[in-house]
Specification:
Elements: E1 15-17, E2 20-22, E3 29-34, E4 39-45, H1 49-68, H2 71-87, H3 89-100, H4 104-125, E5 132-134, E6 140-148, E7 152-155, H5 163-175, E8 179-182, H6 189-201, E9 208-210, H7 216-225, E10 231-235, H8 238-250, E11 254-258, E12 263-267, H9 273-285, E13 295-301, H10 302-318, H11 337-352, E14 356-359, E15 374-377, H12 384-387, E16 394-400, H13 403-411, E17 418-422, H14 426-435, E18 440-443, E19 462-463, H15 468-473, E20 476-484
Parallel strand pairs: 7-8, 7-10, 8-9, 10-11, 12-13, 12-17, 13-16, 15-16, 17-18
Antiparallel strand pairs: 1-2, 3-4, 5-6, 6-20, 11-19, 14-15
Helix pairs in contact: 1-7, 2-4, 2-5, 2-6, 3-4, 4-5, 9-10
The chain binds NADP nicotinamide-adenine-dinucleotide phosphate (NAP).
Length: 486
């Protein structure tokens, strides 16, 4: 097998600014690690503020021409990106596995998911419409004109190195905005590859700029303080989201925030248990549990708790942990040592409060950052893992006896991203759908991500939507004209 790094030649492991691929002005680089082995796989440019502002310069200079590019042309370039990602899916997937650690099968699924945002927004690009009406009191007309918001700054996380950027870049370009993306320092390579692919398919210089850096705080705050920036979209932790919201306030930026979650997955006694088990496995274990929509707390109604727990534990215990490139591996490496240490701490905290571990719970020796699929029961309400985002393959299973009780527990969190409910009773499903304080709900399914659906949270899980028609509206301002027709 070829080296996964072959897909990104050394000249593209640099900053993508305007029509150039260039080193940081300081010449400094930083190392990217393979989390499965702990070895360095590449060095990439470490941008400072001056480099970030050069990228914003490029985005600003390209803004007017991109906004004036016919929507059909913008659409065609997004379609070309979709096709290129699809044609080169294997190469892109291998790079994702290399820098992020997820099993190759999951990396392929991410490429398909990420590519779909380009296809979806290629279709949306030609459907941006205004309205024309008569004012209710008569006498004049009202015309609304949607316009691109202007240069956008994107900050993305490491857990979906392609898809989290794709779902910002695709709608922004569809709407006519230019972009500067700062990918996570742990997974910058996939975003650089996407920028290279978009250059190859003909996206004009300056429309997609990428700034890799180890100095996220100073580079991003300089970008948000610059009045040429008109929008910031962030996917990451609630903690960093709060910081960026404060910074965005000074420049009164449009904001989209896709932040952390603490999803409850509720299994009712009347559920089809096979469906519920399958849904729980997907909701918990997709992306090694490193997903904002991962099931963090699994609540099972008492009559089926024992059977569900037994079968769920068997399935979790049977998963194969290992290097994401190896055949048959279900659970790849976690992103870094602090992530593994955090899981260890959360499990120790729960056990210290009386929880029992049914499978897993013991971290293996290195190299690499691995943690086994773990199931706990008798987890008390005050255990940290019920209040914090676990972000790994650890599942607390908790019994419940009434819908009101479980709904109150499910909603007792600052987060409100997603909830899952498994039941064959339509009324129950609808009561949970109405009662859960979340932006999204999975009913009898554990996977809700879909480029054609509005993804986003309420409460402290975020502001705004990604995907669907709502996704492009995040990148459009509406000008209204009052027109007299004497
Ligand atoms: P993170 O620590 O918040 O980092 C996300 C991004 O923000 C990275 O690019 C990071 O750069 C950057 N960053 C960190 N501190 C910053 C600062 N002071 N100013 C500007 N940028 C800063 O989150 P993560 O650990 O990468 O990702 C996991 C989190 O993302 C979880 O909470 C998860 O729930 C959330 N997430 C949410 C969604 C959603 O759609 N709601 C989707 C995926 C993930 P560095 O890499 O250099 O630190």
């Amino acid at each position: 097998m070829s080296d996964p790094m072959d897909v990104l030649a050394p000249e593209y492991r640099r900053l993508r600014i305007g029509d150039t691929w260039r080193d940081a002005a300081s010449g400094v680089t930083f190392a990217v690690e393979d989390p499965a082995t702990g070895t360095t796989v590449a060095e990439v440019a470490d941008a400072a503020v001056v480099d970030g502002l050069a990228a914003l310069d490029a985005a600003s200079r390209a803004a007017a021409q991109w906004a004036a590019t016919p929507p059909r042309r913008r659409s065609e370039l997004l379609t070309a990106t979709y096709r290129a990602l699809t044609d080169r899916a294997e190469e892109v997937a291998r790079l994702i596995t290399l820098e992020m650690g997820k099993p190759l099968a999951e990396a392929r699924a991410e490429v398909a998911y990420g590519a779909e945002f380009f296809r979806w927004f290629a279709e949306e690009a030609v459907r941006v419409e205004g309205r024309y009406s008569t004012a209710p009191a008569g006498g004049y007309r009202i015309l609304t004109v949607p316009k691109p918001v202007g240069p956008c700054v994107f900050v993305t996380p490491w857990n979906f190195p392609l898809a989290m950027g794709a779902r910002k870049i695709a709608p922004a370009l569809a709407a006519g905005c230019t972009t500067v993306t700062k990918p996570a320092a742990q997974t910058p390579l996939t975003m650089l590859l996407l920028a290279r692919i978009m250059e190859e398919v003909g996206v004009p210089a300056g429309v997609v700029n990428v700034v890799t850096t180890k100095r996220a705080g100073e580079v991003v705050s300089a970008l948000l303080a610059d009045t040429r920036t008109r929008k910031v979209s962030f996917t990451g932790s609630t903690e960093v989201g709060r910081v960026l919201l404060r910074q965005a306030a000074d420049n009164v930026l449009r904001t989209s925030m896709e932040l952390g979650g603490n999803a409850a997955l509720i299994v009712c006694a009347d559920a089809d248990l096979d469906v519920a088990l399958q849904g729980a496995m997907v909701a918990k274990m997709r992306n090694i549990g490193e997903s904002c929509i991962a099931a963090n707390r699994i609540y099972v109604e008492e009559p089926v708790r024992e059977e569900f727990t037994k079968r769920f534990t068997e399935r979790m215990g049977a998963l194969v942990v290992g290097n994401g490139f190896a055949d048959g591996v279900d659970v790849g490496a976690l992103i870094d040592e602090p992530s593994v240490a955090k899981l260890d701490d959360l499990v120790a905290d729960a056990v210290g409060r009386g929880a029992r571990v049914l499978t897993g719970g013991v971290r293996p020796d290195g190299p690499g950052h691995f943690y086994p699929p773990t199931v706990l029961v008798d987890v008390p309400d005050d255990a940290r893992m019920l209040r914090e985002e676990i972000f790994g393959p650890v599942a607390p299973v908790i019994g419940f006896t009434s819908d009101d009780e479980v709904l109150a527990k499910a909603n007792d969190t600052e987060h409100g991203l997603v909830g899952y409910v498994f039941t064959r009773d339509l009324q129950r499903a609808l009561r949970f759908a109405e009662g859960l304080q979340t932006g999204m709900i999975g009913v009898n399914r554990g996977l809700i991500s879909d480029p054609s659906a509005p993804f986003g949270g309420v409460k402290q899980s975020g502001v705004g939507k990604e995907g669907s028609h709502e996704g492009i509206l995040e990148y459009l301002d509406v000008t209204y004209a009052a027109i007299d027709l004497p």
